[in-house]
């Protein structure tokens, strides 16, 4: 494995911070391992020549693989069970009371390979069996196009579905030689889009529930603050934002804390 020079590592870190808001200053060994193999695959003589290719945008595939390699996609179905129980027992009943006839819009920001989106869709499917609810749209966004291709394919190995309840395994997956395929009725309410959360405003519209779990932990302070402001702006009043357990919101003023890294946006005050 080849190693970065200090200047090359600083260049790669600065590009990731500037373009994606990622703070990779403590990830030098990881970046060297992942990017060294890619540089060799492309037959390039140095990290500088590889970074020239990525930054120029002249090879879109190389640029897409670059961000896919440096980001973490570890996830599985029904991850953090207590948060899903909160959605079922608190968030969905609140939506049912307040938005009985209007479509529910749910965002999974940093959706990776799609397991979170489909887990939410399965939870909605379960809930709809005993409650009269309007249509639900679940929108997943991620910066990695390779991860999104896997999400759209919706076929997963056993290791990533084995935390799902047994009845979900029986009802919402079809077993095949390739793995476990999510059924059409779960997939139909989910859509995916490539978007960069650290952009000035990557979202449009208003969401009734936002999950952004294990994403902002990788951001630098400026990108973290900007992303939380964006999510707050696109979240409906009194609705919930779900973060990862390692993610701390230092300024909770626009939210009230509900436990388990779940925050409720404060209701907008009515002018006198």
What does this 3D model show about the protein?
The protein has helices at 6-20, 28-42, 47-56, 60-70, 81-98, 115-128, 145-153, 166-172, 184-187, 221-233, and strands at residues 104-109, 136-142, 155-156, 173-176, 179-182, 190-194, 207-212, 235-243, 255-259, 262-265. β1 (104-109), α6 and β2 (136-142) form a beta-alpha-beta unit. The radius of gyration is 20 Å and the shape is globular. A seven-stranded mixed sheet has the order 6-2-1-7-8-10-9. Strands 3-5-4 form a three-stranded antiparallel sheet. Helix content is 43%, strand content 19%. By secondary structure, it is of the alpha/beta class.
Q: Whole-number average pLDDT?
A: 91
**Which regions have little confidence, pLDDT < 50, spanning 5+ residues?**
none
Give the CA-based shape. globular
The gyration radius over C-alpha positions equals 20 Å
Q: Which characteristics define this entry?
A:
7-stranded mixed beta sheet; 3-stranded antiparallel beta sheet; 19% strand; 10 strands; alpha/beta; single chain; 272 residues
Describe the secondary-structure layout:
Elements: H1 6-20, H2 28-42, H3 47-56, H4 60-70, H5 81-98, E1 104-109, H6 115-128, E2 136-142, H7 145-153, E3 155-156, H8 166-172, E4 173-176, E5 179-182, H9 184-187, E6 190-194, E7 207-212, H10 221-233, E8 235-243, E9 255-259, E10 262-265
